[in-house]
Amino acid sequence: MKRSEVTEKILDAKRLKGLSWKEIAKKIDPKQSEIFLTAGLLGQMKLTPDQAKKTAKLFGLGKLEEILLTEAPYRGSLPPGPPTDPLIYRFYELVQVYGTTWKELIQEEFGDGIMSAIDFNMTMDRQPDPKGDRVKIVMTGKFLDYKRY
Amino acid sequence: MKRSEVTEKILDAKRLKGLSWKEIAKKIDPKQSEIFLTAGLLGQMKLTPDQAKKTAKLFGLGKLEEILLTEAPYRGSLPPGPPTDPLIYRFYELVQVYGTTWKELIQEEFGDGIMSAIDFNMTMDRQPDPKGDRVKIVMTGKFLDYKRY
Amino acid sequence: MKRSEVTEKILDAKRLKGLSWKEIAKKIDPKQSEIFLTAGLLGQMKLTPDQAKKTAKLFGLGKLEEILLTEAPYRGSLPPGPPTDPLIYRFYELVQVYGTTWKELIQEEFGDGIMSAIDFNMTMDRQPDPKGDRVKIVMTGKFLDYKRY
Amino acid sequence: MKRSEVTEKILDAKRLKGLSWKEIAKKIDPKQSEIFLTAGLLGQMKLTPDQAKKTAKLFGLGKLEEILLTEAPYRGSLPPGPPTDPLIYRFYELVQVYGTTWKELIQEEFGDGIMSAIDFNMTMDRQPDPKGDRVKIVMTGKFLDYKRY
Amino acid sequence: MKRSEVTEKILDAKRLKGLSWKEIAKKIDPKQSEIFLTAGLLGQMKLTPDQAKKTAKLFGLGKLEEILLTEAPYRGSLPPGPPTDPLIYRFYELVQVYGTTWKELIQEEFGDGIMSAIDFNMTMDRQPDPKGDRVKIVMTGKFLDYKRY
Amino acid sequence: MKRSEVTEKILDAKRLKGLSWKEIAKKIDPKQSEIFLTAGLLGQMKLTPDQAKKTAKLFGLGKLEEILLTEAPYRGSLPPGPPTDPLIYRFYELVQVYGTTWKELIQEEFGDGIMSAIDFNMTMDRQPDPKGDRVKIVMTGKFLDYKRY
Amino acid sequence: MKRSEVTEKILDAKRLKGLSWKEIAKKIDPKQSEIFLTAGLLGQMKLTPDQAKKTAKLFGLGKLEEILLTEAPYRGSLPPGPPTDPLIYRFYELVQVYGTTWKELIQEEFGDGIMSAIDFNMTMDRQPDPKGDRVKIVMTGKFLDYKRY
Amino acid sequence: MKRSEVTEKILDAKRLKGLSWKEIAKKIDPKQSEIFLTAGLLGQMKLTPDQAKKTAKLFGLGKLEEILLTEAPYRGSLPPGPPTDPLIYRFYELVQVYGTTWKELIQEEFGDGIMSAIDFNMTMDRQPDPKGDRVKIVMTGKFLDYKRY
Amino acid sequence: MKRSEVTEKILDAKRLKGLSWKEIAKKIDPKQSEIFLTAGLLGQMKLTPDQAKKTAKLFGLGKLEEILLTEAPYRGSLPPGPPTDPLIYRFYELVQVYGTTWKELIQEEFGDGIMSAIDFNMTMDRQPDPKGDRVKIVMTGKFLDYKRY
Amino acid sequence: MKRSEVTEKILDAKRLKGLSWKEIAKKIDPKQSEIFLTAGLLGQMKLTPDQAKKTAKLFGLGKLEEILLTEAPYRGSLPPGPPTDPLIYRFYELVQVYGTTWKELIQEEFGDGIMSAIDFNMTMDRQPDPKGDRVKIVMTGKFLDYKRY
Asked: What is this structure's pTM?
């Protein structure tokens, strides 16, 4: 069984139950970030055994599917090539347009290294604005120095 | 003349003068964000005529180069294919891992549409942390509804 | 279940009922543009709950399929690579041939920014012509200024 | 000599003279569409000998460059892969999102065939709108029937 | 149902009946070119309702399959990338080797434009030759002038 | 020196002399097909020493360039990926649409094998037609049997 | 039915019967080369009706599968992109490393043309060697002259 | 300096001197295989210091170029993607058609492992044949067992 | 049946039995390296008949699946393109960053040749470290000299 | 100026001086690993100002080149696509063959996370072996836990 099949089952069950990701996150583990849990249910993060058990119960999954949710998945949620979905493409566009700027400014501030995408967290909020509300995303990642040896 | 040749000239002049992007931004336009200006000097944003004039003076550019800085460039700062530089790749990895999560959560909150990469701004800061300082990036983009017609 | 499976079911039912897209659009929602609705039934736009209900009734779809029609789909209707179908390829060819012209003329008229593909609408008509009728496509998209920050 | 070198020379001369495409089009041939002429100067269309002569005079081009402007160029104005420039990408996105819709609706109305990208013309205008002006593009292309033989 | 599934059914039925394309073409419509009909049965051309009915009868297809044969298919008969089959690759090689020659000579003779692949026909014959028989392919396509506007 | 540099020199000299390919072919070798010679001058075929000498004289080429014209070139006249030029693309489209048809019909007539693209020749003519003149291309290639061993 | 499904059935039957390709070749046609026959059973060559009948009997294939074995397959045994299997990759590496050498030396010896991959045969043997046995592959292909016309 | 520049210099000098690869090989080192030396001069193999010195003398190369000839080059003689030159493509086609056959037969004979492309040698000869002479290529490569550990 | 189907069955059985790779390796063959065996169970190495029999018994596989485990598989464990999974990507990144360094240093030390990936072995260990434990990978591969001939 | 130009200058100077990487590393900084320094001189690592000064002196580089050596480079030492050089390809092959094995075993031992390629070091040695010396590579990278948030 593939993790993507578990994801598809979860999405179908979610549709029929009419639950939002917010509600699901609250039921499965109110202490974990909703972004992290959604990413897990979409097959990109590993759930704890307890979260997996609650997910299996909520969506009627079998034992094998429950175990799969506790494994580190082969990550990568998109088909090959630049994403064709406009919402996701805009983030890809940011990498195209700001890639070299991030490199210059982060390395000017911190030295040679990278912002970790592993020791990393993120929040997403609605920022009310009279000209049209805005999506606000805050990411922090640990700066990792290139080790000299 | 290509915009990328202007970028290369600016980078060489910056190296020889020993200036940081922070210092350059202050000299060219202290009211504009340092990210925006750096992106402009790296060939991804259009400078105002006044900013371009100051850039030309600071780095010894000619008239044609100054005009090019005031044009909307053909954007895209990276060679084709997934970026090979580790710092930039980590952002690409975030798109791979979180792409579908962003889609689900933004559209759950805002409805069908996208976060604009045009009506968009960003800050980047150092977040001190005893376990190792963190890079903090805050982005806000206007939510644009898919128009029904 | 995938949205593409819903699309395939709709296409098969449409074939057997012998309905045209014009007729279907009239039955589902005569106030919505026929282009928008067709795009929705082909898996590229989100229908309203009422439109989805009528679609499900018309084509004999189940509850899950009806719900899928009300979700923002992962957009992108074509296989990867340049389209091989000649009708669709001609539009791709227009992007290849006129891409830089659009950029120059739109930005000369409006400044730095883009024509939105989200706040966008389109009509398609037959333009009678003694030398052979013509396809007439009219698109309007809101101009979005690159935000300076 | 390559056509792209002529294009680059024209762009540099245009920058230094501070002319707009509108003004250039008026000087070179006020009876020809500004879109067509701009595309020609960007290396995508063939100019008439008279237009090429005026272009050469206006921008100080040599004889060889003037002749190149009167040749049918190897068309294609973009680097390989999906365009990275946001303005041009949005048109590519329209092909991704509306490709199958165009196919269904054009062929429902006209039968099996294509909209010509050769016997084709286009206009581009500003459509004033209180919520933000819109880019309006009107294209007409002759419908060509797939010949049965 | 996909057109490619209809093609596969036709091929299997043809195998079991031991019919050649020549014989099939005669049975379905002796007035239509054998090339055109074969391309239709392989999923690249649209059959007339009468041809589709005869095809369905000959090969035992159902109603849905018969209707699919009367639709303009999403054309493109090959997997992505250069064709790996040697017979088909040789035609691709001709495009690689003679592409620029065709462009120069057709445009020298006819002016700026293209040979239509839509208003197009083709024959294929055996040309006896003592050194080994030859495949003779004759194509004619309407010349289409690039419209100036 | 690369063969493509010789091609570029020939094209520039041809432009300045105002010669057509027909005229050039007559001057260089009236007994050889105009298609073959044009392909040679565009860097895809090998000229005879005598043809190369005449070409060098006509266009003012040096000794090294003359020798390069007598070498079998690394063939392939197009940039990588599907051709973006519309005239050349239409031939590529024929391969996409008719590839499997050619395979079926040639192998039905001749058995397992291919049409040679090496023992191959071609003519191109204008076919007058009241509805618009047509481009007529006739190709013959020796049929080569797959050797059984 | 696809040829690749026949190949998979043959491989499974071969596994369960515990036969080697050598033994199979002897049973099906001891006069045909073992390489040719293996390539045919792997879906790359066409078998004679008699060979196909014996194959069907040996492996328990049905009528349709037997007929498929007598058709010229759509050749190409590998997934797209450079082969990932090390044994097959080494041959691809030879093309990368020796490609231009083959071109120079074959054309120096034979003139402009190619080594046919159609009128071609091959043997493969073990060459005992005290430092480790060697794989010996002998290929001969008819030299085909580029036809001048 | 890049090895490809040395290759280009050698090719130009060879053209002007009118030498064949056979003659060059004899002058540089009659004891080394002509294939190996040609591959070296084309930038794919490393020459001995003595061979490099003789090459430099023969073709008038400088000291730096002579040293480059004695370095192990970054191998790979072809542009990316399947080769477009017909002579070289035919070898690529053999990999496509016979790849899985080589795998099955070599591993049936020798066990799990590969034919080395490093401990490898090759000869190329003309095989006279009344139906047309043939190119004969003999390769032997050491069989390397996959090490079990 | 494909090897990848056997791999998927093994993974599912392993999940339900709750065994680790270490435990499995011990049961199947305690004398073989755990890396080698895991690679085999993941479809990249060939097991001995005895190992295959024990695997089949442990996981409840059938005869055909057992035989498949004893065949040299078509190697390559990843989807095409750079790996999207972060853990695996980091190894790919090492090739991008250190590729030319490995080439320079290995060839400086050993001469022209390669490190074999066939006569190769590897261990993987946890290296305790107060700043965070480290993954330690040791690889040794036989150096193979490029054969001169 | 681009970093790759500095690399090319260093390689040329190294050739003419006849120095090995070992010798160069000793002169520039005997306390830094030879692998790290070679990677830096090949444009993949950032040197310290002191190392850059010594490099500039040793190889006769200018001020700008010296500064470039102290910048974090845009990393990635290889042309796009799988590497064609056999020595480097073998490492790429290890990723293809062992990628999933590394994932399974590292995550079984350490939990969900990655081996850092930033907090990473490496040694390379010759391992004498009577059957042929071996290349021994030892890598250690800090294990980074996927942060839960």
From this structure: 0.95
